[in-house]
Amino acid sequence: MGARIVVNQMPPTPLRKVQNQSYRTALMSDLRPIEKFRHRHLLGIEGLSATDIVTLLDMAEDAIEVSRQIEKKRATLRGRTLINLFFEASTRTQSSFELAGKRLGADVMNMSVATSSVKKGETLIDTAVTLNAMRPDIIVVRHAQAGAVHLLAKKVDCAVVNAGDGAHEHPTQALLDALTIRRNKGRIEGLTVAICGDILHSRVARSNILLLATLGAHVRVVGPSTLMPVGIERMGAEVCRDIKSGLCDADIVMMLRLQRERMSGAYVPSSREYFRTFGLDAEKLRYAKQDALVMHPGPMNRGVEIDSGIADGPQSLIREQVEMGVAVRMAVLAALAEHLPNG
Ligand code: NCD
Questions:
Q1: Ligand 1 site, residue 170, Cβ cutoff 6 A
Q2: Active site (catalytic) residues
Q3: Of 44, 118, 145, 260, which is most buried by a Cβ count within 10 Å?
Q4: C-beta of 4 in contact with ligand 1 (< 6 A)
């Protein structure tokens, strides 16, 4: 199982079987999975098997190599049209999907729609039907409403990728986090991962719990009761309401932003008080393992959920996560391309 870059020939040949061809030459070819990725869309981590996840992570390893070359362009999506449809603000997710699409040779169109200008329900479907008529091959969607991306996928003929739907799922973030962890710890199985902060409003937390549990990690969610969803332990996570027990012996500490845009009332007394009890600083990080690594999906609120010294310190993987974001999105687009007509 696994996936490697293969030379663009029929039938596709795994890299290790390519005769008389250097790895470097092979890197100039398409990014394709050896095993066909079974799914037409990527709507969530839910529904993916461990094999699906590992296939995407292995492809992403190859995409990292592609992105580190001077010549970064591949022909995997040549002739294809990718639409980035973002109903919510985004910096790294949108730009990394754009770069990923372009590196694979697609024409990429970015559509940013301010939430306020969009009427829910009918308008989303209208938008989907309109875009569908333009014959895109892949649409990447972010929407403030949980379930909106699934709804849109039912209305279009192309592949759909969920780039975050409300507080529901953000599958490519969980994949890039898993890739970052695997590269730094050499494995995911058996690690203790503490996901800390605003679990209630976080699609990143949900997708990460599902993925990490599928790959055999021990997942803890850590935060105040007001930011802890009822029944979260049924997803396979251990619930900790204080940071000391939450971080105890953790291999990975993943900090989350307070998602104030999804809060309708006061969930924490004040930012200062929140930082004092749940913000990650050097003192609290000492509860975790000595070689623990710190992650954050961004955007960070320095001094609220994380101290600047930790965010920029030697245990931080935050910048590496951004690089992995482009690689994982290349892998996802390349895997879905296998299902496109003539793919
Ligand atoms: C996350 C998101 O949008 O859910 N950010 C991201 O995709 N990099 C987390 C967040 O906004 O806090």
A1: yes
A2: 92-93, 120, 142, 170
A3: 44
A4: no
173 Cα nearest atom in ligand 1: 7
Q: What string of pLDDT tens digits covers the 343 residues of the chain? A: 444 444 343 333 343 333 334 334 444 567 876 667 889 999 999 999 999 999 999 999 999 999 999 999 999 999 999 999 999 989 899 999 999 999 999 999 998 776 545 666 668 888 889 899 999 999 999 999 999 999 999 999 999 999 999 999 999 999 999 999 999 999 999 999 999 999 999 999 999 999 999 999 999 999 999 999 999 999 999 999 999 999 999 999 999 999 988 887 788 889 999 999 999 999 999 999 999 999 999 999 999 999 999 999 999 999 999 999 999 999 999 999 988 987 5
For residue 283, the CA-to-ligand 1 centroid distance in Å is: 26
* CA 249/CA 307 separation, integer angstroms: 20
**Cut 0.85: pTM above it:** yes
Show the DSSP H helices in 68-199 as ranges: 92-103, 122-133, 148-155, 171-185
Ligand 1 contact via 179 beta carbon (within 6 Å): no
Please state the atom number of ligand 1 nearest to the C-alpha of residue 203: 4
Q: Is the CB of 92 under 6 A from ligand 1?
A: yes
Residue 92 CA to ligand 1 center (angstroms) comes to: 9
